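Lecture notes, part 5. Sequence design as translation. It can be helpful to think of inverse folding as translation between two languages: the language of shapes and the language of residues. The source text, in structure tokens, appears below.
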């Protein structure tokens, strides 16, 4: 028999964002749905688990681009620097990816995710029968097509093909480091040593915002790099690449940034702990996580159908 899976407190950038956006949503996602993957779990828990796994169309589209890029770079890494890089048409790769989107879209619309919410895509828009016009779906497909094209045209594969096998540091790997007594999770898109002890960390984006590599997510990556890869702040390069816009920007970091990131994570963990009825056992009760519905915040939330406060507001 395997060890019992326990719900332990941890920290990640996305967990922090959920905590900040709505305490009730945070409760549903990290506590209410826990164990809902089991067919023997209570129906309410199973329902929360299903809802937790729904994705907005934007998250879905961004996730597909990340998967395509990660698969391409996994091939580059496996081939090593001696093998010639096979040419890939960005146009064809873009069309191939959009064909995959169509298949997943149809599967989501069929409701198959209700049987297996973790493995089968369920879109929030389908689950809530939202009215999204054809032009919006086509615009989404065009964003993905363009992002894949920009990836292949941007020379990223060629650049990474020159990286020596021992210099690859991360490629969508889930990595962790301890802080304030809990594991902090990071999942960098790609990171490698560029020479002279410098580490480059790249974050792919697919939205409309021009690249700004100064945010918290990259600061957390920098903190991980400093603590786990033994580099100084001056040796860390943070690069945000917006594949949708075909634009990128780079920033450095400094010791003060890393101290600030560490303090911000510690404060966030403390705030999460304060909400628990038992912080040792990471036990929470829903009454300690108030829902404050507000249309802009609630619209992308997958838990609308179970949130009484939202139901009340919508009446
Ligand atoms: S519907 Fe609104 S208030 Fe309710 S959990 Fe979601 S974001 Fe929070």
């Amino acid at each position: 028999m395997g060890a019992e899976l326990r719900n332990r407190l941890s920290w990640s950038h996305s967990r922090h964002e959920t905590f900040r956006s709505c305490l009730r949503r945070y409760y549903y996602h990290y506590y209410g749905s826990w164990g809902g993957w089991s067919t023997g779990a209570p129906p309410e828990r199973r329902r929360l688990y299903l809802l937790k796994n729904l994705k907005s169309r934007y998250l879905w589209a961004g996730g597909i681009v990340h998967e395509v890029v990660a698969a391409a770079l996994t091939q580059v890494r496996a081939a090593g620097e001696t093998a010639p890089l096979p040419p890939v048409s960005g146009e064809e790769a873009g069309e191939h990816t959009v064909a995959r989107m169509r298949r997943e879209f149809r599967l989501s619309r069929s409701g198959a995710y209700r049987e297996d919410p973790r493995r089968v895509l369920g879109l929030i828009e389908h689950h809530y029968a939202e009215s999204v016009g054809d032009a919006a779906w086509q615009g989404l497909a065009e964003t993905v097509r363009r992002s894949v094209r920009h990836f292949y045209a941007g020379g990223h594969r060629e650049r990474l093909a020159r990286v020596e096998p021992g210099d690859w540091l991360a490629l969508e790997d889930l990595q962790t480091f301890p802080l304030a007594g809990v594991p902090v999770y990071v999942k960098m898109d790609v990171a490698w040593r560029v020479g002279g002890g410098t580490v480059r960390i790249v974050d792919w984006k697919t939205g409309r915002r021009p690249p700004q590599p100064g945010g918290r997510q990259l600061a957390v990556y920098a903190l991980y790099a400093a603590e786990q890869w033994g580099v100084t702040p001056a040796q860390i390069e943070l690069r945000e690449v917006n594949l949708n816009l075909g634009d990128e920007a780079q920033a450095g970091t400094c010791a003060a940034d890393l101290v600030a990131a560490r303090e911000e994570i510690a404060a966030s963990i403390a705030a999460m702990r304060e909400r628990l009825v038992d912080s040792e056992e990471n036990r929470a009760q829903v009454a300690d996580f108030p829902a404050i519905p507000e249309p802009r915040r609630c619209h992308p939330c997958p838990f609308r159908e179970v949130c009484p406060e939202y139901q009340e507001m919508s009446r």
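The translated text above is only one of many valid answers, since several sequences can fold into similar shapes. The chain has a mean pLDDT of 95.
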